[in-house]
Design a protein that fits this description.
Elements lengths: L1 H17 L5 E4 L6 E2 L2 E4 L4 E9 L2 E2 L2 E2 L1 E12 L20 E4 L5 E9 L14 E11 L6 E3 L8 E5 L2 H11 L8 E4 L4 E4 L6 E6 L4 E6 L3 E3 L7 E6 L2 E6 L1
Parallel strand pairs: 3-12
Antiparallel strand pairs: 1-4, 2-3, 4-9, 5-6, 7-8, 7-10, 10-11, 10-12, 13-14, 14-17, 15-16, 15-18, 18-19
């Protein structure tokens, strides 16, 4: 009898677990603002945040969408983690956007403007910024709202820098030898390599923002980039090209 009870308990737990499908959530264009792996804004920037998400289900009932929120926050503490407790609920003035999206999941976009008068990250060691962003939803379609949490938010540490600081960081990140074994093929809109180069690559725009990244596979398709000046960085060197 005890064995049967244990089997039934395991079966019930398995059914309950199967009835919970977590949501998914990501800041999908975050890499557009990364310099040397750090999300970087400057005063006066208008930031377009693209969120990709799906809704899950709870106890077999579909979760329902409420809204997505993004907000720039500051904390008078050095090196505070994005997921650490104690962050102030008071955002930097004018940097909160609460917006709807497709109720069944998908992609939604909102914009905030970084204030011209905002303190720079370099102005004091006791200052940390994060971009809080999360989805609010109702588990199982109930009345109680869940604000973010695992799989429903992507809070990220960000840095506020001047254009001069950004230029300096960009120069350091591409301080490598010139890549002489590659060229831009304007007819086919690809970077062509003259020998068998492998490994990771990044392409920066003239402001030092990451425009593209990935792994080299004989050529690099740059058709998605707008016209402008770019710098390709690889382990073997760098290539400056105009599209």
């Amino acid at each position: 009898m005890k064995k049967i009870t244990q089997i039934l308990l395991l079966f019930t737990c398995a059914i309950s677990f199967a009835q919970i499908v977590p949501p998914t959530y990501s800041w999908s264009n975050k890499a557009d603002y990364e310099i040397n792996g750090e999300v970087t804004f400057k005063p006066g920037d208008m930031i377009s945040v693209e969120i990709t998400y799906t809704l899950g289900s709870t106890d077999g009932n579909a979760d329902t969408f409420n809204f997505v929120l993004i907000s720039l926050q500051d904390e008078a503490e050095a090196n505070k983690g994005a997921l650490d407790s104690g962050w102030s609920n008071t955002p930097v003035e004018g940097t909160t956007s609460k917006f709807p999206g497709p109720g069944t999941g998908g992609v939604t976009t909102a914009s905030i403007t970084i204030p011209e008068s905002i303190a720079l990250s370099s102005s004091t060691t006791d200052l940390t910024y994060r971009l809080l962003n999360y989805m609010a939803y109702n588990k199982g379609g109930g009345s109680e709202i869940t604000y973010g949490g695992p799989n429903a938010g992507d809070p990220t540490i960000v840095y506020i820098r001047t254009q001069e600081e950004i230029n300096s960081l960009s120069t350091k990140s591409i301080n490598k030898s010139k890549l002489t074994t590659a060229h831009y093929d304007a007819n086919n809109d690809v970077i062509v390599f003259d020998n068998n180069i492998k490994g990771a690559f990044k392409i920066y725009d003239i402001l030092g923002r990451t425009a593209s990244a990935g792994n080299i596979e004989n050529t690099i398709d740059v058709s998605s980039l707008i016209s402008g000046i770019y710098i390709l960085t690889t382990e073997q060197g760098v290539l400056k090209f105009v599209k």
